[in-house]
Amino acid sequence: MAFQAKKKEFESEVGNKYTFQNVMNSKQAEIMDEGTNAVGKVLNTKMMPLMLKHVVVTPSGLTMDDFETWTELEEVTNAAFSFLRKGQ
Asked: What residues have CB less than 8 Å from 23, skipping those under 6 apart?
């Protein structure tokens, strides 16, 4: 079967809307390798930008500093990470 990207609409607790899109398995493996340490612990300074770059497609081009609060940044990137891993 060929890869077909899935999308998901997400609304943060403060009401901002985002669209997530999954990536091919090979890209997901690269993201996991880059965003975690040797024992698999997620590194926020690496994983959050990867989620914003590769999974959050709308609005595009977000950076960690575009968020008003850490709470929303964490909420959105955690939801994007969950979507990437589970596809839902």
From this structure: 5, 31, 54, 55, 84
